[in-house]
Design goal:
The protein has 357 residues and is α/β, with parallel strands linked by helices. The protein has 14 helices and 13 strands.
Length: 357
């Protein structure tokens, strides 16, 4: 088959899973990867995959004209330039455009929600556009089963679960003892990740154990504000903004405990990558799927939202007990089997088989 995978960019969780999916499908199909807002380099080789930069732009005074133009551009690309037999689209706005572009033909469409749709909604008018557009989709995939309740369970009957692939890392953590415990996190420096809250919680923890450190990897609009916060708290020798890193696994094994304070996540790739190499974690359970990933008191601690004292307590608990870190870290490594490429590709193949039939 001629399969088209649509995503905005190579960067980010959706971009990563789109590249992995395209790579796996290319073993037995002709695969196109269509980027609607390309601005980052690819993360994977993508051999034998056709790349198309669609470069959609719905801005300016007349957004209706831009919307119609984008729909026509996608239709021309999918039907006439590529000749798609099936389309798999990632991210809600892309999904809506794809569905509307194929409204009058029978090309099978799978659309995929890659955030928590119970908590994160498309901005108006995209919320109403999605409600109409998803009627055209054959299957809507979500990352956890309870996400199927989004939009008052309007699309529950056509929802299927396709989790993210957690790749087996090229290296595993083998030493859990260290002179000083170093906490680490990966994520874009933006409001929803609540790195400012993480710094505040670390400050409380280091007041009881001055030897600990926090290293934050990532970039984003909050970088300067976070650095000012670090300086104002007198933590410049304990909290470090490390910038963007593309050697994720090799970097993670140098640390002891992974932290996540996000207000919302879909399927948190960075948390899973940290678990896969063998780091125990302390994470706020911003939705019940986090507990499925980070089993409380087995592979880490999934802290109920708002319980900041408990978060700090578990940080210190792991900092002071390398044997527990090792036990939980070894348990955490199992996540790459639970969400292996083979298992997740079976989920996708079931969806493809369903829509093709």
């Amino acid at each position: 088959m001629n399969i088209v995978v649509v995503v905005d960019d190579f960067h980010g969780g959706a971009g990563n899973i789109a590249q992995l999916l395209a790579t796996e499908l290319s073993a037995s199909h002709d695969v196109w990867l269509v980027l609607t807002n390309l601005h980052s380099p690819k993360r994977y080789p993508l051999e034998n995959i056709h790349i198309a930069d669609c470069n959609l732009s719905i801005t300016g005074k007349n957004k209706i004209t831009g919307l119609i133009s984008s729909i026509r551009r996608i239709d021309k690309l999918l039907r006439h330039e590529i000749g798609a037999d099936i389309v798999i689209s990632f991210l809600d706005n892309n999904n809506s455009l794809v569905c509307l572009s194929q409204w009058f033909n029978k090309t099978p469409i799978i659309v995929s929600e890659r955030s928590n749709p119970l908590a994160i909604y498309p901005k108006a008018p995209w919320d109403k556009i999605r409600r109409i557009a998803y009627r055209r989709a054959n299957v809507v995939t979500v990352q956890f089963s309870h996400f199927a309740q989004f939009d008052n369970a309007r699309f529950q009957k056509k929802c299927r679960v396709t989790s993210n692939i957690v790749q087996a890392p090229p290296c595993l953590k083998k030493e859990w003892t260290s002179e000083r415990t170093r906490f680490v996190t990966f994520g874009r420096l933006q409001d929803i990740k609540r790195m400012d809250l993480m710094i505040d919680l670390f400050d409380l923890a280091q007041q009881k154990d001055p030897s600990i450190e926090l290293h934050i990897y990532g970039d984003g609009p909050q970088k300067e504000a976070l650095q000012r916060k670090i300086d104002s708290l007198g933590l410049s020798d304990k909290v470090f903004l490390k910038g963007y890193c593309n050697q994720v696994h090799q970097t993670l094994i140098e640390y002891d405990v992974y932290l996540m304070t996000s207000l919302q996540e879909g399927f948190p790739n960075s948390l899973c990558e940290a678990m896969a190499v063998g780091l125990p974690s302390v994470a706020f359970a911003c939705h019940e799927g986090i507990v499925e990933l980070c089993e409380h008191e087995k592979s880490g601690f999934a802290i109920p939202e708002g319980e900041t004292d408990a978060f700090v307590e578990k940080m210190l608990f792991l900092a002071h007990d390398p044997m527990i870190r090792e036990k939980m870290g070894i348990s955490a490594q199992k996540i790459s089997c639970q969400y292996s490429k083979e298992r997740i590709m079976n989920q996708w193949q079931e969806c493809i088989n369903e829509v093709v039939k």
